[in-house]
Protein 1
Amino acid sequence: MSQINQISTTLKSLLKQHQLTYKEVAHKLSMSEANIKRIFSTNNFTLERLEEICDLLQMNLSDLFLITEQHTEKLTQLTEEQELQLLADPKLLLVAVCVRDAWTFEELIEHYDIDQFECTRLLAKLDKLNIISLLPNNYYKLLVAQDFRWIPKGPLERFMEQEVMVKFMAPKKDEKWNFRLYIRGRYSQSSIDIIERKLNQLTKEASELNQEDASLPLSKRQHMGILMAMRPWEPSLFEKMRRQ
């Protein structure tokens, strides 16, 4: 990612946390909303424009550049100790999931049974775990990449397999599937490689869309679960009918 793209990503995150929409930024800068959207979509920032936006965020350009520089490289995998500490405290795990989706401090305490003091404590613990960098007034910078992966066979993966995936595949009454498809076949290794590459690309695109949508208010976003998996497998029903 280029430096200007990194700066743009940092700005979007900070605007979200300050609850400033493109429309409000446009009004404060005496510009049209379309112009502001175009600036962010093309990353066509002048220094003067960056400075004006920083003023709205009550920071200067050096603050913006420092935050961007410090947190350009993001974690793509947690350590086993980090995963264990998250699992040891359900509320800490909840807040960790929410900050990955760019929830604000206000949204967390409004939506979940967490008071201001406890939420501040949980954010501070995530900062200590190097999952976020806690900024003044309970703003934060996420240090975990959108497409980070669990440790193979590690604590979080075992938790997901035992507690999440089983329940995900058994929806509650009246819960609908937006999309569900199971396919099987016998493939050559070259075809398997192609399928894996396409699945990895889809994972990356879904992560990027989640990051882009982080600038929208919580009321315009909904929780979605996406489960993708592929492995050598034959249904046990068929397995029993194999010729011995």
Protein 2
Amino acid sequence: MGFASQLIPGIFVFGLIIGSFLNAVIYRLHAGRSITEKHSICPRCKHALGFRDLIPVASFFILGGRCRYCNKPISWQYPAVELVTALAFTLVYSQNGLSLTTYHLLLTTCFLIIIFVYDFKHYLILDKVLVPGVVLAVIFQVWRHNFWNGLSGALALSGFFGLLYVISRGRWIGFGDVKLGVFLGFLIPWPATTVLFFLAYIVGAVVAVILLAFGAKGLGDRLPFGTFLTLAAFIAMLWGDEMVGWYLRLLGLT
């Protein structure tokens, strides 16, 4: 086993820890609390949580999915976000190794997970998350000398979503999705932006069918499109260029 492979368990554990922090950030953003607060608390009884309450994934199962202090149920969001973050970090590292690109992608993954969960729960995409995300994405594309492709992606995504927003007067898509298009367009520069676009609609359609089939949603219910966009963005972030190359070869254009 090479040195890079030996680091994978550590990257996974690091992802679990960061996932626990992201859960705290998501809760504090919604509760209007500072993300720099020292102590985490139970969302139900507001009791400060100790170290043994905050061991990623393990504490949830040790406690039987209930708060130690008020015995109220703990949301499955907490272990799910921790595990997803750990898996996402492992994927990013496995593909890119230790590099500046990896550090950027890991940080970007954190933004994507926060947006995914927050939009899924609250149907809202916060500017205080989007703005630093856009700045990070722009800096990365400038560093890669790829700013203009990033700008093209941002204009394509946000422009299309903006058109849908205007035509539907906000019924089909929220303005938060228009702003999210700027972030994701810079993150996934043109032409990989097209992969993100189609993946988002495919994922959205599949999830919508599943929710309708199980009666979780009705035909007139809203769906958090930002959630589908961020999931598609993570896939395109790792494999978008390969997907574009495969499609062009399929068409005989390369």
Protein 3
Amino acid sequence: MTVEYSYELGYLSGASFEWGVVTEPVNPAAPNQSTSIAPNELFGIYAGSKNIDGAWQLLEYINSEKLSKMNGRAGIHGSLPTYIDSMQKKDSNMEAFYKLSPQDAYTPSVPYEFSTEFYEQVQQSMTRVIEGELELDHMLVELNTIGQFKLDQALKK
């Protein structure tokens, strides 16, 4: 299991094993909201535009399957709906991408400092497991203990 961006679907669309998609873990206080959904490419048409028809044509092209396929061949990931349409495997449950709403306001639930420190700790611990210096079960207990301690410290700041 992993939490990844939607473009990872492109790598999985030709996979020889069975896979699926679920929503990210949610905060029980806001079970219908995601902390990671955010618009990153918004397009609009100026109300006073003199070329509204041309602007609509551009928007249609930006969200077209044709551009999505061209972008996919170039390694560029376009909008989710057109990206899904261009995938080889379309029968996977894509509802997870539309089930949650963005959170009402951006208030990080985890301090940035904690995230970067904990990510480094996870990398170090995983390396120790791979090299046989640490058992996986022990690593999980260790990460839980260290992670909780560092999170509590970061939240106190």
Protein 4
Amino acid sequence: MEVARTIAETRRALEPRRSGGVGLVPTMGALHDGHLSLLSAARAENDTVVMSLFVNPAQFNERGDLASYPRDERRDLRLAEEAGVDLVFAPSAEEMYPPGFQTWVDVVELGSILEGAFRPGHFRGVATVCLKLFEIVRPDRAYFGQKDAQQVEVIRRLIADLALEVELRVCPTVRDADGLALSSRNARLSPEERERALALPRALATRDRESALRLLAESEGVEVDYVEVADFQPPVLAGAVRVGGTRLIDNVVLDER
């Protein structure tokens, strides 16, 4: 497995591999089984698998959240190699956003609802970094998890609107045995907070907004940001809650159209 720190190194490493399919799995590290499922799918469908490892500061609207985001590059690289990744692109923030950087991509309507309403600028950061990764890696396929349903929809719109030559591959949400959707932020939950957090997947499992809101209202220590039906592809019942100092999102698919 190769590790590239610069855009130029990444392009050089990929140039001789262009004749075969290239799959990209964008990550911010802190890998868990959800990420590994994406890497597995990419490994099965491509000759070359690229994983980006970059905590993107542009998609954080709270400095504290960025500072506390879990980082363990050595572990992430080990897991990536075990998963069969061929190349890891692990740039610095300065490599991705050099001095004077001022060009942004904003998926205006999709980026302003749900998560976008609570995290202004978040999806501008997501869309910009993903477009830049697509231009650097030039993958045939890019892999994202259904757990971040709105992010998937933003990337789908980005690809369609800008006529990008990349296939979006969406993999199912991976959950722990207790039903909690895997997330790097789960590590912040105390055992008591984790038990409270289970109210979110249990509420969404009703597949009914009013029932979900009622169950969450009855759950101690759970602050609801939203529960909404989103007309994505496919439609989902999506929710976001705060448990202690941790904010969690989740969704369930309503219609496999």
